[in-house]
Structures are given as structure tokens and as C-alpha cells.
Amino acid sequence: MYPTLEINVNKLKHNVKTLIKLCSEKGIDIIGVSKVFCSNPDIVSAYIDGGLKYVGDSRIENLKGISHLDVCKVLLRLPSPSNARDVVKYSDLSLNSETETIAELDKHAREQGKRHSIILMIELGDLREGVLSEDFIKTIDNISKLPNIKLAGIGTNLTCFGAIIPKPEHMHTLVKLGDILRNRYSINDLIISGGNSSGIPMVASDTMPEGINNLRLGEALVMGTDAAYKRRIDNTYDDIFILKAEVIELKYKPSYPIGEIGVDALGNVPVFKDKGIRRRAILSIGKQDVRIDSLLPLDKNIEIVGASSDHLIVDVTDSENEYGVGSVISFNAKYPAVLSLCTSKYVAKTAVK
Ligand SMILES: *Cc1c(COP(=O)(O)O)cnc(C)c1O
């Protein structure tokens, strides 16, 4: 069945082991982030087999789908107050920044006979989620009044929105807030979660400040790159997700459209270069399924020409392979492509070894 996204679970397990080794040497525990592949259970199992004890996703529906797996489940996106019941039910730990929401979690934890753990997120400049440092004490005081909530730690998120690269100074701020919790509130064994894959350069260069004992890693595990400079991490694979799509038309056609050019199917005015007559394949996948600009053809002599919602057009003129109708063409799918492919119900997902 095509299109299909093949996931090499052995390579993924290898990346997991590499990152666990790198981080554990610095006293850092990893939450394996699974949102890019929607917490597909076969792939999450590779995380667990590789040695991860925590799995994090931004969507509670995805965590619900892995309730049968024996791993600590972390909700990464701030819970919606209206969904607090499911958050308590399907996650063991959630990241939070709003006292009202935490109060809702407390209420549902009581109803479900549980104590729900939270990590309080701190805003350090990327301007996505988190309480401002000046509101920290007030927020902790409010959380302390909730009997069914356990403050398991504090954390921050950088790079995702404002593209801010994390520096030791950011981490020092976080560690100091952790010290306040220890000294003033006698809360011990805290998780101090220094961020996502953009924290890896500090770990690799041994500049991650002491006291940071947790990172939440997605990109580093699945792509083998850090999220700050997009550099390859040593001893990792970068070809874990391979998209295979099928040729449904293969013909020689002009490379420049014939007639007056208006707007294409998705509202863009396309630009074409006239390269004469080319051999072009149409594949049965399109922009409804995948971000085509983050697909890399494995056949280096193939070029992606463009796509509409359901058709991907590639130029195979220079290829040394013999393609025909029904042939399968493979692509290395980078992070944005994996995100879209895993969300599309039209794309099969196959774990391979
Ligand atoms: C997505 C996400 C991560 C993981 O980010 P990567 O750059 O893929 O490592 C970590 N924390 C939070 C809160 C996230 O939303």
C-alpha cells in the first residue's frame, strides 16, 4: 500500500541509546518526545526499548493511544481547562503555567482518587508558554494550596517560537528558581527541565549548568540533529523516516506550462523555468499529506518539481534508474514532512527493522 512512511525502529533505538548515554553522563534524564509521529505505539515502543522511561506528547489524544504501554506519560502542551479530566486520566505529568487550569486538574485528580504531577513552566524569553519570573512566588503559593497536585519540577521552553537559542544564563535562572523551591518550600527531588533538543549543544560542549537534570527531546532522537543550529549529533542516524510513493503517470512533457498562467490549486502564482521536454513522474501523494519542501529524494538525480493537493510531480529525466508506472520512489522525510505525514490518514505507517 502506497504512500507509506517506513520507520526504521532499530535506527531510532540506536539514536535513543546515543542520546541517553550523552545526557546521563551529565546527570540529565530524557523525556522522549513523540508528537512528531503522533505517539504511534510501534514507534513509542522503540523509545521504551531504547531505555526511555518518560514519553511526552503535546496532545492528550495521542497519550490516550499509548495508555497500554508501561511508561510515564507527559503532556507537553498546556492542558485545556475543559479537558482537565482526560489530562488527569491519561497523563502522569503535565506542563502548566495557569493557576486556574491547575485548580481544574486538582479537582479532577480528587474525583479520580489520584495525585497529579505538574512541571511549572517558566518564561525565559522565547515568548511561548510559561509564567514570568516575577510571578513565580505568587504562583507557587497558589499551587501549594492544592492538595491533589504534586509540584514535580520546573521547566522552560526555548527556540520553538521566538527561535531563541538557549544559553547557560537561561539555565542559571531556572536553577536558581529551583533553589528557592528547595530552601523556601522544602520541595526536593525536583525535575529541572532545561528545554528541548536545542539544549543538546550545551550538553555536547559540556557547558550545560549543573542543576539542570532533564531535557525533553524530540528532534534529537528522530532526526539526529540539535534544534538550535541544526547540526548533526555524533553517532546518530538521520534517515529513520523514509516515504515511499507510487508513480501513477510517467510521460515526457514540456517543463513550461502552455497557456496563460493564473493561480494554482492552492492559490499561489507558480514560477517555471523552461528546461525543454522532461521525463516527469506523478506520485499519488500531495500537499494534503506532506510538506514537500522537506522531502529529500534518495535517488540524487531526481528533482521535486512541485505538487498540488493530491499529486507530487518529480523530474526523473537525469535518473539512472528505470522508472515506470507503478514504480516506487523513496524520500528521506525531514521533521516538517514527518509531522504532516504522520497526521495524514492517507499515508500508511510501517515499522521496519
Ligand atoms: C515539542 C516540544 C519539545 C520537543 O522539541 P524538540 O525540538 O523536538 O526536541 C519539548 N518540549 C515541549 C514543551 C514541546 O512542545
Give the structure's gist in a few sentences.
The protein has 353 residues and is α/β, with parallel strands linked by helices.
What does this structure look like?
The chain has ten helices and 16 strands. With 353 residues, the protein is an alpha/beta fold. The strands form two sheets. Strands 1, 10, 11, 12, 13, 14, 15 and 16 form an eight-stranded mixed beta sheet that branches. Strands 8-7-6-5-4-3-2-9 form an eight-stranded parallel beta sheet. Helix 4 links the parallel strand 4 and strand 5. The structure holds pyridoxal-5'-phosphate.
Assess the beta-strand content as a share of residues. Answer: 15-25%
End-to-end span in angstroms? 18 Å
State the total count of DSSP E strands: 16
- Which hetero compounds are present in the coordinates? pyridoxal-5'-phosphate
Poorly predicted sequence stretches spanning 5 or more consecutive residues: none
Report the mean per-residue pLDDT as an integer. Answer: 97
Q: What is the tally of helical segments?
A: 10
The succession of helices and strands, N to C, reads EHEHEHEHEHEHEHEHEHEEEEEEHE
> Mind telling me the C-alpha Rg?
23 Å
| Cα shape | elongated
For the largest beta-sheet, the strand count, sense and barrel status come to: 8 strands, mixed
Task: Give me the secondary-structure category.
Answer: alpha/beta
- Percent helix: 25-40%
